[in-house]
Amino acid sequence: MHNVSKRRRSLLQAIAAGSATSFFGPWAVNHAWAQSAQKKPLTIGLTMDASGQYGASGGEERLGAMMAIKEFNEKGGVLGRTIEALHMDTETTPATGSRVAERMITRNECAFLVGALHSGVANAISQVAQKYGCVFLNTNSSSPTEAGQNCHRTKFVWDGNGTNFAHAIVKNAIRVSGKNWVLLTNDYVWGHTTSKATRTLAEAHGAKIVDELMVPQNTRDFSAFLIKLQQMKPQVVAAAVGGDDLKALRKQVVQLKLDKQFAWINNQQDWPDVYGLGPEEIFGVFGTNWYYRLDLPGVKEFVEKYQKAYPGVQIKVPGNVYYNGYMATRELLRAVERAGSTNNLKVIRELEGLKVPARDRMQHFDAYMNPATHQMQQTIYMATYNDQPAEKDDIFKILASLPPQEVEDRDAPGACKLESYESTPSYEA
Amino acid sequence: MAQLLPHVVNGLSLGLLFALIALGFMLIVGVMEVINLAHGSLFALGAYVAVWLLGPTATPATFALALVAAPLAVAAFGMLLELCMRRTYGRDPLYGLLLTFGAALVIEELIRAVWGSRERTLPVPEAISGAVLLGDLIYAKYRFFACAIAAGLILALWVFIERTQVGAVIKAGAHDSEMVRALGYNLARLRLGVFALGTALAAAAGIIMAPIWGVRPHMGVDAVVPAFLIIVLGGVGSFWGAVFAGVLVGLVVGLTGAYASEWSLMSMYVLFIAVVTFRARGLFGRKSVLDA
Question: For the packed helices A94-106 and A119-132, what is the interaxial angle rounded to 10 degrees?
């Protein structure tokens, strides 16, 4: 009897340990060394998810950053120094983001940090980066708080945010589909702030928000939410759901044929979240900041370069997440070149004054960095599923392109309080 | 009441699916007292093998074939894993835990290497796709099918364990393995068979859940955590305890999803804490000195 109870106790202890190990994976570290040079290489830390809700998108933005680094290394690096990339998995977990950032800055001596999908992770990384004065580029996290209340002197945000995308799609959705709205919100900072922006705009244009359903992160079964939606019978469902959660939602909406029952708008649609889905699963109207078939100079060559560099990848054409990873890293390295120094404060000043012609960014309108919020102001596209694709991957139809002034997040400058230069630690990488 | 009923029905169906996910895990933990942390990865492997077998479309015949063939293939893989685990038997359960945790990582990376990390879709036959009207509500046909399969597998496993001679030997092996060996039964073969059955059930659950959750290399994580919770909640080693816990978790998740949506995932953990606080051995667990 005693032995049996000891065995059961050991088993229960092991179950508890097992539960813990299933939550905390191993520390995944991956070095991507570029060729060495006589001068000390410049190390960029890639703080990107390789697992969790945004694992797939993290892989894409990493390819984008690596492409920009490769291009600079091919022409001799920056300031005569080769560029090395050090990647660690931030696991779509804020606590891991903090640990990774701390380690990259203090142990690996990374000069700059690049990458983020999840706004909680981005916020966690940026707090560590600000503590050390390390320039951090938030490539793909689009919570309005990132360039609002959670802004930092050392952080620069490259994606459009929830408010920008809401400006692009809300007014049109009210006009076309009706004023009776329900919000479906991923229950974390990006979802909250994005739905808040949607609510504000929708109500300002006469819509009524009947209810807001909070979707916990990592929800895989949406049946309860979908039954509730059917009972409420809204005209428009505005979803701020991302990553793997969105993929599961799309599947279940199509299974129930609810894509035809209400008008669906999804604030922002990241390319890795829809790539490979069947046409019926890409329903609704959504926002994006880039598409691989924009009829603009340089786009075709950009796509060909991706395909040549990464022939074996699952996603055969680049999307917005790759694009943001590439653009952010390229502009960072250009800023270092222009500054003629790796001094963080000089690089920050360069980035604050950044202006990029539309042609250079392969978008319809000129873009610029807002020095008060550190968010890139850029073209935002309203898109839907393309029912007449020119090729297999041509799944988006661009409905409208809006200049940055029309989609501006006007609340951000009031909410953002950048730290002073004096209080930001200075360093030379 | 009319508003509540669909959520109760949905919660029950969700519960059956949760029970299905926990079934293979429960068999291996309950009968062999081995914590198979690779359960989630084997769940994912089953889905991937089925996707590979089916290709882009499915007919009722090919889907049924995949539902049988993929678990058999994964069971063969499970047997290899069991052979590796033999050195851990009779030792501290942590050895088995570490080995299966390592196996989980290896299987997930194997999936990435063979099929890539992109989302995959498991096609379903036309007959069970689409939706049915239940009064004012639309409900997915596939979900009824999944629940029927889940109920069928639960019942079949119960009959096998409780009403066959092999089942009796398996239960006896769990209770007193030395006695079973002394009676002339090949214990090694018995364990191999149970492990294969557990992994086949994991794979079958992966296939059934794939059209609802989607197919991704890390989809197993979404399965293994509820599976853990359900078997402990039901009482380690209790067959009907696990089934009951699965249904209870489904009901709680379904109802909170409808009426307090931000609590829908958290609710299963709150339920778990509430039950284990007052009944450490779970709802149907055997009494031990821990309860004295």
Answer: 30
- C-alpha A332/C-alpha A337 separation (Å) is 9
pLDDT tens track for A117-169: 999 999 999 999 999 999 999 999 989 999 999 999 999 999 999 999 999 89
Provide the pairing of β-strand A396-402 with A380-385: antiparallel
The CATH architecture assigned to B5-291 reads Orthogonal Bundle (1.10)
CB atoms within 10 A of CB B175: 12
Tens-digit pLDDT profile for residues A294-353: 999 999 999 999 999 999 888 999 999 999 999 999 999 999 999 999 999 999 999 999
Chain A contact probe: residue of B105, B261, B262, B290 with most A CBs at under 10 A:
B261
Residue type, A130: Q
Phi first, then psi: give them for residue A83, nearest 5 degrees: -110, 130
Q: What is the per-residue pLDDT across B221-259, written as a single tens digit (0 to 9) for each? A: 888 888 889 999 998 878 899 999 999 999 998 899 888
Contacts of B262 in chain A (CB under 8 A): 187, 214, 216
Burial degree of A54 (CB within 10 A; 0-12, 13-18, 19+): buried
Candidate from B131, B254, B289 with C-beta closest to A255: B131
Helix spans in chain B (H): 5-27, 39-54, 60-85, 93-115, 141-163, 165-175, 177-182, 187-213, 219-234, 239-259, 266-278
Helices marked H in A234-319: 243-255, 271-274, 299-309
pTM higher than 0.80, yes or no? no
For residue A36, what pLDDT band results from cuts at 50, 70 and 90? Answer: very low
Q: Which of B20, B92, B138, B276 is the best substitution to test chain A (most A C-beta atoms within 10 A)?
A: B138
pLDDT at A35 over 50: no
Token couple for B122? 């498991």
Q: How far is residue B100 from each of residues A9, A18, B83, measured CA to CA in Å?
A: 20, 10, 12
Question: For A369-410, what is each residue's pLDDT tens digit?
Answer: 999 999 999 999 999 999 899 998 999 999 999 999 999 999
Do the Cβ atoms of A8 and B236 come within 8 Å?
yes
Domains of chain A with bracketed CATH = 29-160+296-379 (3.40.50.2300), 163-288 (3.40.50.2300)
Query: Strand pairing of A135-138 and A112-114?
Result: parallel
Q: What is the pLDDT of residues B74-96, one digit of tens each?
A: 999 999 999 998 888 878 888 98
If we measure between CA atoms, which residue out of A120, A72, A70 comes closest to residue A97? Answer: A120
- ipTM of this complex prediction, to 2 decimal places: 0.75
Instruction: Say which amino acid occupies A371.
Output: P
Cβ neighbours of B265 in A, within 8 Å: 216-219
The pLDDT tens digits for A197-252 are 999 999 999 999 999 999 998 888 898 899 999 989 999 999 999 888 888 898 88
Cα angle, residue B158 at apex, residues B153 and B159 outer, rounded to 5°: 100
